[in-house]
Amino acid sequence: MRHAPSGNASSDTMAVNDETQPPGARWLSKGEAWVLELSGEWRGHRGALPDLPAPDLAGPVAVTAPALHSWDAVLAGRLWQQLEPLVRREVSVDLQGLPQGLQEILALALNAAPPAQEAPDDNPPPGLVTRVGARAMGSWDTRRQSLTFVGEVLFSLGRWLRGASDMRASDLMWQIEQTGPRSLPIVALVSFLVGLIVAYMGAAQLQRFGAQTYIADLVTVGVVREVAALLVGIVLAGRVGAAFAAQIGSMRANEEIDALTTLGVNPFDFLVLPRVLALLIVGPMLTAFGAVVGMAVGWLVAVVIYGVTPLEYVYASVESLTLPHVLVGLIKGTVYAALVALAGCRQGMAAGRSAQAVGDATTASVVQAIVWIVVAASVLTVVFQRLDV
Amino acid sequence: MTEFAHPPSATEPARAAQAGAQAPLVRARELTMAFGDNVVQHDLTFDVLPGEVLAIAGGSGCGKSTLMRHLIGLQEPAAGQVLYGERDLYAADTATQRTLMQAFGVTFQAGALWSSMTVGENVMLPMQVFTDMGAAECEQEARFKLALVGLAGSFDMEPAALSGGMKKRAAIARALALNPPLLFLDEPSAGLDPLTSANLDELIRHLRDDLGTTVVMVSHELDSIFALADRLLFLDAQTRTMTALGPPRDLMREGPEGVQQFLRRGAAEERA
Question: Do A279 and A333 meet the contact criterion of CB atoms below 8 Å apart?
Fold first, then answer.
């Protein structure tokens, strides 16, 4: 095969022609050889070249351009499309009749090493059972990774309790400050609005039976036991869990976690543990705060709209607010907060090393946290009911 | 594989001879690196000698940075061993691994400074975690390390406020925090302008010559390789193994064809 540029070929600087020649190309037979002859003005022309005279062409091929006035990259591309299969089949291709620039461009493209051919896959595509099995295995892998993650966190917690952790107290305080006080406004707003809905809708139903004095019982028990914890969990999932995933995922993408590891610092102690501990501390506090806001809204609705006297509402609230209700609410709030921390940190630690992967991890952390919260809420409700708490 | 066993060449005579006389700091034995079934490099056997700058070079995608990740305990080899002294890094228990890993400092391509901390806190962290130094002493030591790398005024700066070259210098200061005898540098000059790159080379030379620090440097910057490296380990992307190990100038004259081509390109650019 000869397609190396030739020094004595004609220049690619075209002679100025008074008349514009239409682009032309034709295959000529010269014994066993075939010649593709180009002519005219090819610059700016996007037409195709004539097909090969035979698809299984085996004889030598030459490309000439005795009357080619101008050309551009489009012609080079068209020629490459025609000649590359021939070169691959080791058909001799002579480019010396082309302008030097065109020769060089084509030689560059035709000499480029072909991409590594993957071995042909002789295996038939996987059947339904194989695909289901593969997905089940993939799903099991994900579960296993989540369990491993939880195990690592527990080990980390154990090291902290033994005083052998790499966690810095300042990091824990910083995380508490970020996740606690800074979450108060949004928790207050959401608790206020949802408390309003619970109180208003509940009172509307109770009024039909003349039982609006029970608004206090409904709101207090509902908000303290269930609603406040659920709201705090969801708010934390969106505000804090996503931030955890993004922070840790970015650190992973920037090799910051690798830098910790090579220092011998355990990333779980350093990054995950302060976040988990912070939410374990902050979760019940925010739940209590949300419950107080919810109860206050219930009082407002009952007193202003339904004519319950302020003291009557307070008395009924205190009567209905038993210790088990408070403990159940706080336990739920703590569990949900822990789940949010685990989901956020797990997704961050498992994130890929690109911006897209960090975004995916952030989204996944919110979804995972909310799913886990809903599952936990169901389980805990059944458990507490069974325990008659 | 062509190996020039650190001959006392005209350019690096004393250091190479001295290095050859001491026990290796790190030994890679028949190391195979793979991602699943895709083998990146196989059968890598070499030593890192005390006091030398060992450059790891090769074409794009040949596995230079991957090799470094294997040497520093971030990625377990598919086969083979990474030995620090007589201890296999990957066969050791977690506590031993942790101890072994404190014997070296690492800088990554983009610096990998912890973005939630100031530059000074970045440098102080290893001291706080691994030493019983007090806060004031840590700060003093960190300020010294930063001054050493030419970043005296950056103690309270956020990493985001640093330029690319400054980040790499700060990362070197952090890697030096525990005064390790061995430094791993991943592409220290990549993406830097020639002057900044030359300054960084100068810093690495000082670390080796003045502090006696051994440096393993992943690089494809030929200027840096010729300026710094006592030996060059060349990874070949086609054969997927090391094809040469020796002083870069010797390899340029007598190394395998591919290595000579790789190195001559740099020499030609230098002449130009």
Answer: no
- Residue A277: CB atoms within 10 A of its CB come to 20
The beta-carbon neighbor of B112 closest among A247, A254, A264 is A254
- Residue B256 three-state SS: coil
C-alpha R_g of chain A:
37
Please report the pLDDT score of residue B270 as a whole number.
54
Tokens of B43: 């059968």
- Annotate A123-142 with DSSP letters as a single string: SPPP-HHHHHHHHHHHHHHH
Question: What is the strand order of the sheet A61-70 is part of?
Answer: A24-30, A33-41, A61-70, A93-97
Enter the ipTM: 0.72
Q: Residue A62: which H helix or E strand, with range? A: strand A61-70
Task: Check the CA dihedral B153-B154-B156-B162 and report its sign.
Answer: positive
- What does the radius of gyration of chain B's CA atoms come to, in whole angstroms? 18
Q: How confident is the model at residue A100 (pLDDT cuts 50, 70, 90)?
A: confident
Phi, then psi, of A39 in degrees rounded to 5: -155, 165
Is any Cβ of chain A less than 8 angstroms from the Cβ of B129?
yes
- Which of A382, A380, A374, A375 has the alpha carbon at shortest distance from A230? A374
Can you list the residues of chain B whose pLDDT is less than 70?
1-21, 266-272
Query: Is the Cα dihedral B192, B198, B204, B206 positive or negative?
Result: negative
Can you list the positions of beta strands (E) in B85-140?
87-88, 104-107
Rounded CA-CA distance A208/A211 in Å is 7
CB atoms inside a 10 Å sphere around CB B100: 21
Q: Which residues of A touch B116 (CB under 8 A)?
A: 247
Distance from CA of A148 to the nearest CA of B (A): 16
